Amino acid sequence: MKRAVKNEGYLSLWKGNWPAILLNTGFSGISFYCHDKFLEIWKQTYGPSMFDEFCCGAGAAAVATVGTYPLDLIRTRLATQTVRIDHGLRNSFKHIIARDGFVGFYAGVPITLVGVVPAMAMQFALFGTLVDRTDRSTVAIVACGGVSGIVAKVITMPIDVLKRRQQVHPLLREQKWLEKWEGEAILVNRREYNITVEQTSKRNILEVARWMLVHEGPASFFKGTSAAVVKSGLTSAICFVLKEMCTNYHSK
Predict the structure, then answer these.
(1) Of 8, 202, 228, 246, which has the fewest Cβ atoms less than 10 A away?
(2) Looking at residue 125, what DSSP letter applies?
(3) CA atoms in the 13 A half-sphere facing the CB of 194
(4) Helix, strand, coil % (nearest 5) of the chain?
(5) For residues 148 and 118, is the Cβ–Cβ distance under 8 A?
(6) Over the chain, what is the mean pLDDT?
(7) Contact call for residues 66 and 94 (beta carbons, < 8 A)
(8) Predicted pLDDT of residue 84
(9) Is the separation of the CB atoms in 178 and 186 below 8 Å?
(10) pLDDT at 2
(11) With contact defined as beta carbons under 8 Å apart, do 150 and 233 qualify?
(12) Please, are residues 205 and 162 in contact by the beta-carbon 8 Å criterion?
């Protein structure tokens, strides 16, 4: 954070903010709606089960991820670029279409599904298990939601790191030629997000993971964990309590 403010000013902390708002709103809405619908179908078909929350959470996460992934991709690229290649949400859409076609919006989606699906499945399952042992008060829901979000994020953090590195590969491919004019800015950007041109030239996730393990060590898979855990805990707590409030209001 200090480095971003020093090099790009305080407004840099809000880069990619609009795609992030649309992404989080859409992802949360789709995942909670699908989870409840899948859970209803599951109980009608199989009856109550210890796996119902986990399986329905996984299915809801898959649908929400595929539906909102283009926004996730654009948010990441806007946040990581130092030299302004993509200018805002609309320009990013046009640029990706022109550069990579429609398939460009789903660069890195397989590894994202590998990370998000089990994370959300664990989050829903853990929340359901914890909250059933409480009085379902607002404080209890906030606590259970926060704990479930933190645990899920810590377990799936390595996958999230790999996803981010694959997402920014096309962007760094374009920024590489700007090095001789903007060398220091690009170097700062790569250091901040733990990215190198040599590494991102390896499109295969297993090769990227091997490169990280050899050159940066196992700890590189958990870079940024502290900030990610705080964000995930707060986001999860807020989403679950708002969902509970909306459900209670709708049922009246």
Answers:
(1) 246
(2) H
(3) 20
(4) 85, 0, 15
(5) no
(6) 78
(7) no
(8) 55
(9) yes
(10) 60
(11) yes
(12) yes
Tell me the pLDDT tens digit for each residue of 177-204. 334 333 333 333 444 444 444 444 445 6
Question: For 112-130, what is each residue's pLDDT tens digit?
Answer: 898 899 999 999 999 999 9
Q: Is the dihedral of CA 13, 201, 118, 250 positive or negative?
A: positive
What is the value of pTM for the model shown?
Answer: 0.72
Structure tokens at 201: 């030239």
| Torsion angles phi and psi, residue 161, rounded to 5 | -65, -45
Supply the pLDDT for residue 202.
44
Contact by Cβ (8 Å): 111, 159: yes
- CA angle centred on 196, ends 193 and 201, rounded to 5°: 125
- When pLDDT is averaged across residues 133-151 and rounded to a whole number, the result is 94
Tokens of residue 105, six digits = 């919006």
Closest residue by Cα to residue 159 from 228, 113, 226:
113
R_g of the chain computed on alpha carbons? 19
pLDDT tens-digit readout, 9-60? 655 555 556 667 888 889 999 999 999 999 999 988 888 777 899 999 999 9
- In sequence order, which residues have a C-beta less than 8 Å from that of residue 149 and are 6 or more positions away? 123, 232, 233, 234, 235, 236, 237
